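Summary of Year 1 activities. Much of the first year was spent building the evaluation harness for sequence design. The harness presents a backbone, in tokenized form, and records the residue chosen at every position. We chose the following record to illustrate the format because it has been used consistently in internal testing since the harness was completed.
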């Protein structure tokens, strides 16, 4: 927990009862994705149909999500949605980091507005990087590459945690709805945990939720594409958002959707609960009328309102309708003075293997390609990369290679080769022993050199845009 800190890496700690706890600041990395999906209730991407899937979707690299439908439905309806992700400004940007940007770019092309958090407070607190240095790294290393990777400067806003008060305020405010037991359960924290590791996730909660405030674009679904190491923060955020909600929207007992009130300290009086424990019936009825009016607005005509039981039923509403109803009621909640926060959606990608066979890590340059590696270095790294070939040519021809562990093949699949048909050919020819390990490496080198050479060129061409990616409060 307190050990080496790498971006996009995490530790899976086994706890009593064989439960897994993901430590987002840890240095180990598990690829036991099935288990993570099952234990934390992620949804598989298998059940999701995308209209124009990207390379990462088509190849199963983006493998899981939470509530992605909420975002895709908004898009289909022509409503807006937002994309938020964050970066920890520390080391150099490597290929692993580019995967998140690939996804951000895809969502941007689908019409999402993009917000990117520079986690300078987190970097300062957990890695000892000054805010000044964090800013420099963020601009020169990350944003410069985002521009080169083709994020649309008109639709992207980069901000710093340290200079956006609402982010910190939300984190502080929502701290009220969690406690150290929950942090122990989610992150495995104990008595020795440095409080920076308690504060950083709360700021990240603020990062994730603030784009839906009225000031930053208003209520809309927000999707957070991340590596699975960041899922603990999403679980925390989703839980906290739900706890602030005034209205619960659930499946009806027999059919349809049922709405109930969630009364807490902040909303008790607005919902007609008087301090002496009595009910202000008139106020309560007004709230129920407001719920009904919202539903009528959505076009329902079979609304059963039972203020006495504290429920509103809509028998004809489908599961699909739930998000729309939820959003409408969040808007209503806002009009009554509530925060009206929708739990964020998220997507998760597999990590690419490190080049040496161990995990990718910025502190071990041989394990990955940096986006600033010069081309001879790229060639050298791929030549030395871990291979799924056999030890001799004869054996390779006879037994074939294993593309699943072959770094050169894997990097083609993750990063460099767009053509699925060609990739499938490479895969089967490698397995059949028709392509040798050295040949696979050469194919990868050619593609990698093209790809990175192009990126370097783009970086020069887009350097003048870096400032324009910054939000007003980041300049
Ligand atoms: N904690 C993230 C990391 O270690 C950075 C981050 C900060 C972030 N805020 C975020 C990621 C919001 C996604 C969403 O890399």
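For this record, the design step produced the sequence shown next.
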């Amino acid at each position: 927990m307190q050990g080496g800190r790498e971006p996009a890496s995490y530790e899976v700690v086994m706890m009593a009862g064989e439960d897994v706890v993901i430590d987002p600041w840890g240095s180990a990395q598990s690829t036991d994705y099935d288990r993570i999906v099952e234990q934390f209730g992620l949804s598989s991407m298998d059940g999701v149909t995308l209209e124009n899937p990207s390379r990462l979707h088509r190849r199963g690299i983006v493998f899981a999500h939470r509530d992605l439908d909420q975002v895709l439905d908004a898009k289909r309806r022509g409503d807006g949605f937002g994309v938020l992700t964050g970066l920890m400004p520390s080391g150099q940007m490597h290929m692993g980091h580019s995967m998140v940007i690939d996804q951000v770019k895809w969502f941007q092309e689908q019409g999402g507005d993009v917000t990117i958090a520079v986690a300078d407070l987190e970097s300062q607190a957990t890695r000892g990087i000054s805010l000044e240095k964090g800013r420099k790294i963020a601009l020169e290393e990350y944003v410069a590459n985002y521009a080169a990777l083709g994020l649309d400067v008109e639709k992207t806003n980069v901000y710093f945690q340290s200079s956006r008060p609402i982010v910190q305020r939300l984190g502080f405010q929502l701290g009220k709805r969690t406690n150290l037991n929950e942090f122990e359960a989610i992150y495995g924290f104990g008595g020795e945990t440095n409080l920076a590791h308690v504060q950083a996730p709360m700021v990240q909660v603020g990062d994730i939720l603030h784009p839906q405030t009225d000031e930053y674009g208003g209520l809309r679904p927000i999707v957070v594409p991340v590596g699975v190491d960041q899922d603990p923060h999403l679980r925390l955020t989703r839980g906290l958002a739900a706890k602030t909600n005034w209205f619960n929207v659930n499946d009806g007992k027999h059919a349809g959707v049922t709405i109930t009130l969630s009364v807490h300290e902040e909303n008790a009086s607005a919902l007609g609960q008087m301090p002496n424990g009595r009910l202000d019936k008139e106020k309560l009825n007004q709230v129920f009328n407001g719920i009904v009016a919202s539903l009528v607005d959505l076009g329902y005509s079979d609304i059963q309102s039972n203020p006495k039981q504290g429920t509103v039923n809509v028998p004809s509403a489908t599961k699909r309708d739930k998000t729309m109803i939820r959003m409408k009621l969040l808007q209503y909640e806002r009009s009554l003075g509530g925060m009206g926060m929708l739990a964020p959606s998220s997507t998760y990608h597999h990590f690419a293997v490190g080049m040496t066979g161990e995990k990718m890590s910025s502190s071990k340059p041989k394990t990955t390609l940096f986006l600033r590696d010069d081309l001879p270095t790229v060639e050298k790294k791929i030549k030395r990369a871990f291979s799924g070939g056999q030890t001799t040519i004869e054996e390779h021809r006879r037994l074939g290679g294993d593309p699943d562990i072959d770094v050169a093949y894997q990097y083609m699949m993750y990063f460099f080769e767009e053509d699925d048909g060609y990739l499938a050919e490479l895969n089967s020819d490698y397995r059949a022993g028709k392509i040798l390990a050295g040949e696979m490496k050469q194919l990868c080198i050619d593609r990698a050199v093209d790809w990175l050479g192009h990126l370097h060129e783009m970086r020069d061409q887009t350097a003048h845009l870096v400032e324009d990616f910054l939000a007003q409060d980041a300049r």
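The longest strand covers residues 82-87. Quantitative recovery figures across the full test set are reported in Table 2.
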